[in-house]
Write a structure and sequence with these properties.
The protein is of the alpha/beta class. Helices cover 56% and strands 7% of the residues. The chain is built from 18 helices and five strands. It has a five-stranded parallel beta sheet with strand order 2-1-3-4-5, with helices on both faces. Helix 10 runs antiparallel to helix 11 and helix 10 packs across helix 16. The chain is elongated, with a radius of gyration of 22 Å. The structure holds fe (ii) ion (FE2) (2 copies). The site of one fe (ii) ion (FE2) has 5 residues, from helix 10.
């Protein structure tokens, strides 16, 4: 599947290779190399986002192999994970091949490997943001940081840092007001924390739409932060449903829908949520014909913000890249949405279409 992030696994042991492949295949495109020479060739030709190296790989062994990767410039910036036997741990810790890497002990623990690769790939993606223009880099680094902190606070049952979340969106407002969002949308797409990627994309599109209808300054800032916070309740949905690498079954979808109620609880613990943010977060799944959730609100019960939230959320979900589906082309997504005349505000949808063509076709 071309939409998955490619990583390279280098090892001679077929059983270990199969194990690594089966652990990671739903999240990453795992390319196996059974000897170090082939691996070096391949790494020079195609970029990979992480290396997983069996320390026993033939003919050179894992550590000298990592030493050889120094001559390939991008490898320096990607995570490298060495799989070792426990008796070689001391040797590996003391070795010096001039490359930074992390290691995991054999036999490989599924959860540990998955977490390490995910965290490392994200760290690599976040590092690649350093090359972006300042405003774009700030949007990404500030929102990813606050998003992580907010999830921690939510899990501990505390009050989310509403003011800091809003502050983290000011580079986004700047990017929207100075026409610099195109690079942002593609830079965030490789990140592996789907809830973050989706939330930031919603914040970006919502800010664009709000800006297109004339909002500015503080008002725009508050609504962007509403985009970033619109699905916070997903943090309290069980992980296996939230990150399921396939479409949800009907029962699982019912559980997923409870994210809106969770968001309400989370907001209840904070005392500085503005009404605009609340509407975006609690009504983005409502539909004009009353078929939405959680309340089944209808027509005039849904104000412009709720209608915008729903358009932007559906558009983002369709064009998001997921492990089980590639990102849908914008035209196709907008085509599908044009058929939803009963549920979506068609006048707002055409405004959205117009400015989307403008905003995303602007050369950087
Ligand atoms: Fe949602
Ligand atoms: Fe959403």
């Amino acid at each position: 599947m071309a939409n998955l992030t490619p990583i390279a696994a280098i090892g001679t042991n077929a059983e270990l290779n199969a194990q690594v492949q089966s652990i990671l295949a739903t999240y990453f495109e795992v390319k196996i190399f059974t000897d170090t020479d082939h691996a070096i060739d391949a790494l020079q030709h195609d970029p990979y986002y992480a290396l997983i190296v069996d320390n026993n790989v033939k003919p050179t062994g894992g550590l000298p192999f990592l030493g050889r990767t120094k001559k390939i410039s991008y490898i320096d910036n990607i995570p490298k994970i060495l799989l070792i036997e426990s008796h070689s741990e001391k040797l590996v810790q003391e070795s010096d091949f001039g490359v930074d890497f992390e290691y995991l002990l054999n036999p490989v623990n599924r959860q540990q490997l998955l977490e390490k690769v995910s965290t490392s790939v994200n760290a690599g993606v976040e590092k690649s943001w350093e090359k972006l223009p300042t405003v774009q880099r700030k949007v990404l680094t500030e929102t990813v940081g606050i998003f992580r902190d907010t999830f921690k606070v939510m899990h501990d049952g505390g009050a989310i840092p509403v003011h800091d979340i809003e502050k983290s969106c000011s580079p986004l407002v700047e990017a929207v007001e100075s026409d610099q969002v195109v690079g942002l949308l593609s830079a965030v797409q490789q990140h592996d924390d789907y809830t973050y990627v989706h939330s930031l994309r919603v914040a970006i599109y919502l800010s664009l739409l709000d800006h297109a209808v004339g909002m500015k300054g503080d008002e725009l800032l508050t609504l962007s932060s509403g985009g970033l916070m619109h699905d916070l309740g997903k943090g309290l949905v069980p992980q296996e449903i939230l990150n399921k690498p396939a479409r949800l079954e009907a029962e699982e979808f019912e559980i997923m829908k409870t994210h809106v109620d969770h968001t309400k609880e989370i907001f209840g613990k904070a005392n500085d949520i503005t009404i605009g943010v609340e509407i975006i977060a609690l009504q983005h799944h409502e539909k004009l014909d009353g078929s939405g959730y959680p309340l089944g609100l209808k027509g005039s019960e849904l104000n412009t913000l709720a209608r915008m939230g729903s358009i932007v959320d559906i558009y983002s979900a369709l064009t998001d890249r997921r492990v089980y589906k590639p990102a849908m082309e914008p035209d196709k997504a907008l085509g599908i949405m044009s058929e939803m005349a009963d549920g979506l505000d068609m006048a707002l949808l055409s405004t959205f279409k117009e400015f989307l063509m403008d905003a995303t076709s602007t050369p950087e």
